[in-house]
Specification:
This protein is an alpha+beta fold. The chain contains 15 helices and 25 strands.
């Protein structure tokens, strides 16, 4: 940062309002047009503006004739700035050549004077903490929330010499590019590791591998290493949950698991619940014992239905409706790992019912087939898979943490490079005095 610090040392800064640095500016708020089924001109709302670009996913379409009519004297061009003004406030996008043509609503357009202000410099400044705080402080507090044109036009921007703006933008763009590249690389790496884990899990639980490991283990005279094919109904019992609703939760009391929490709050296993209920409600619920598996049996999609959590606590817990307890004298973790395999998924897909809400019935699951070695081999497989899962949990935590640290680093330098010692009043957004910019390293 030494080069930038030297460039910024004691430079003079002129403060101008956005209205003063825009060659043109106007609301994009036509009457809602007639949408068409064909793909002619894309039509977006402020919700499509994200992270400096326009996401055209789920955009609708209007006819070319309607586009010509509603964009008359209000055309969107390359390098225009779009700002979301309703709902999600203050998101900003720079229009690219490949985005055109398109139109939309609930946005404010700025066409900057590029002799006065660099577009990328403006982008980083508009995303700075001081602007985000200001926009939140003056938004209308209706159900959606919205900004007015004057709220944008009156924003004051520090205008150093254009070459300094370009250097600041270049530095911050490098940080942005690095964070984006890191996110892609780590996401790809995580996806690869998950695929590897799934492959080895399915391999360890396959008939071929179980027979192989069984043949290699030395046994006592009274032990058997036979791998059998059985059904879930033959080795355990499904018990349907009942009654518990989110309104029944209490700050403390008896431990409970609601089926929705299995998707959002629990991993593979847990020894502690995140929710509790009263003794009275608890007395009416079906109970899972230590070592039972709690399975969610409704979902919005086939892939997630039957997600389960192994209960490792020392006491009974209450279970909500849309859950089954699977109670077995086999190794619960072994069977919970089996519930993640393709072999289980294939059997499940044949028996799901529903369209918007996907369900699986216990009577059907009782017939699902599973390869089952003796308990001591089940434990051996579980120990291996536990190590795999511990590794996956580690990288699941480390990768997002690494990305977050780099984002914070970018934010730190953004605020440092764009702080020109100007005092803002959050309600009027006026400045009280002007200083030269001095950076301390």
């Amino acid at each position: 940062m030494t080069k930038i610090d030297d460039l910024l040392k004691d430079i003079k800064v002129e403060w101008k309002t956005l209205g003063e640095v825009a060659k043109d500016k106007f609301w994009i708020m036509p009457s809602t047009p007639k949408y068409i089924s064909g793909e002619e001109i894309r039509y977006i709302t402020s919700k499509n503006i994200r992270n400096g670009t326009i996401n055209f996913n789920n955009s609708k379409y209007i006819s070319n004739n309607d586009y010509i009519e509603i964009s008359k004297n209000r055309e969107i061009m390359c390098n225009d700035i779009l700002i979301s003004m309703i709902g999600t406030l203050g998101e900003i996008a720079i229009v690219k050549e490949e985005d055109l043509p398109f139109y939309g609503q609930n946005m404010y357009l700025l066409r900057l004077d590029m002799d006065l202000i660099n577009i990328r410099y403006f982008y980083h400044f508009f995303n700075s903490k001081i602007i985000k705080t200001y926009l939140q402080s003056i938004k209308n507090n209706s159900s959606q929330g919205y900004l007015k044109q004057k709220h944008i036009d009156n924003i004051k921007i520090p205008i150093p010499p254009i070459e300094i703006q370009k250097e600041i933008a270049k530095t911050l763009d490098k940080f942005t590019e690095y964070v984006t590249k890191l996110t892609v690389e780590l996401t790809t790496e995580l996806t690869t590791r998950k695929k590897q884990y799934s492959y080895y899990r399915d391999l360890l639980l396959s008939e071929e591998y179980l027979n192989r490991i069984s043949s290699k283990l030395m046994l006592e005279e009274d032990q058997s290493n036979e791998v059998i094919q059985t059904t879930l109904g033959e080795i355990g019992k499904f018990i349907r949950g009942n009654g518990l609703q989110k309104k029944d939760f209490t700050k403390d009391g008896k431990p409970v698991i609601h089926y929705g929490q299995i998707y959002t709050s629990y991993g593979f296993s847990t020894a502690k619940t995140i929710s509790y209920t009263s003794v009275e409600t608890f007395s009416k619920l079906k109970k899972a014992k230590p070592g039972d598996i709690v399975m969610a049996t409704t979902s919005e999609n086939v892939e997630d239905v039957c997600k389960s959590v192994v209960w490792l606590g020392n006491e009974e817990i209450g279970i909500s409706g849309d859950c089954y307890i699977f109670s077995t004298d086999q190794n619960a973790k072994y069977l919970a790992y089996f519930f993640q395999t393709i072999a289980f998924q294939v059997q499940k897909e044949r028996k799901v019912t529903g369209t918007k809400v996907i369900r699986v019935n216990a009577k059907d699951m009782e017939k699902f087939k599973v390869f089952l070695p003796p308990i001591h081999i089940q434990q051996n497989v579980v120990e291996i898979l536990d190590k795999f899962q511990e590794y996956m949990n580690d990288i699941n935590g480390l990768f997002p943490e690494e990305i977050e640290q780099r984002k914070k680093q970018y934010e730190y330098y953004r605020e440092k490079l764009l702080t020109f010692h100007e005092e803002y009043d959050k309600h009027t957004h006026t400045h009280t005095h002007t200083h030269t910019h001095t950076h301390n390293t």
